[in-house]
Amino acid sequence: MTTEQLRVTWIAVSWLLTYPHPETIERFGTVRSLAASIPEPARDGVLGTLEALTGRDAVAVQEDYVDTFDTRRRGCLHLTYFSHGDTRRRGMALLRIKQDFRTAGLEIGDDELPDHLPVVLEFAAGHDAERGAKILRANRPGVELLRLHLADISSPWHGALVALCATLPPLDAEDRAAVLKLAEEGPEEETVGLDGYGLDGDAADQAARTAAASSPPDSCGSHAAAPGPVPVDLMRGRPS
C-alpha cells in the first residue's frame, strides 16, 4: 500500500472499532466511500464489517460491542495489555506511546490510555504514519490474537481486523511464537496498577482504581468498559 492508502485504511478501521454511538454509525457512509480507494484484502475487510453492522438496531450493536471488546480478555482493544499484561512493563510501554504522541504535537489526557486501538489508528492516520505504524508493529502479536479471536466468535468486527492486518508486515517466527504463547497462557499479571504510566500521585491511583472498578473479572483491565465515546476527535488532519 501507499502511505495514503495506509492512512485511509487506518482511519476507516479506527471508526469501525470505535464505540458505536449514533454519530459514529453516521460515519459508515464515509467509511464505505473510503474503502473504494484501498486495495484487497483491506477493502473486503472494511466492507464486510460495514455489511455486518449496517441496518442493525443501534442498541443491539452497542450491546454486541461491549460484549465483544469489554468483557473478554482476547477482545481487548488496549494494545499493551497483550504485550505486557498487568505488569510494570505495561506502564512504561504506555508512557512510550504517550511520548510518541507528544513528539508529534499531540497531548492526550491522563484519563485516557493512549494504547486504545482506535486512538492509535487515528493518530497514525491523521498525525504521524511512521510513529503510528511503529506502535502497531511493536504490538503485532496482540493485533493478530485479536483478529483470530474475532474470527473464532464470528464477530462482525472481524473484517476490520483483517483490514488492519493487511497494513502490517506478515508475522515472523518470533511473532508467531508470541501469538501461540498468548493464546495458551494469556498476558502476564502483577498487582501493580498503572503506576509506571507516568501519571502523578493521585492521578495514577485514580487511573488504576478506575481500570479495576470498570473491568469484569475476565476483562483486559480496560477503563472503557462502560459505554462511552472513544475520543476520535482527538486527532486532526485526517486524510480527505
Describe this structure in words.
The chain has 240 residues and is an all-alpha fold. 58% of the residues lie in helices and 0% in strands. It has helices spanning 3-17, 22-25, 28-35, 42-53, 58-69, 79-84, 88-103, 117-126, 129-138, 140-152, 158-165, 173-185, 201-213. It is globular and about 45 Å long. It starts with a helix and ends in a 27-residue tail after the last helix.
Short structural summary:
By secondary structure, the chain is mostly helical. 58% of the residues lie in helices and 0% in strands. The protein is globular, with a radius of gyration of 17 Å.
Overall 3D form: globular
Q: Could you describe the largest sheet, including whether it forms a barrel?
A: none
Q: What is the CA–CA distance across the termini?
A: 17 Å
Oligomer: single chain
The percent range for strand residues is under 5%
Spans of 5+ residues with little confidence (pLDDT < 50)? 194-219, 221-240
What is the strand tally? 0
The share of residues in helices is 55-70%
Number of helices: 13
| Average pLDDT metric | 81
Topology as H/E string? HHHHHHHHHHHHH
Radius of gyration: 17 Å
Q: Structural class of the secondary elements?
A: mainly alpha
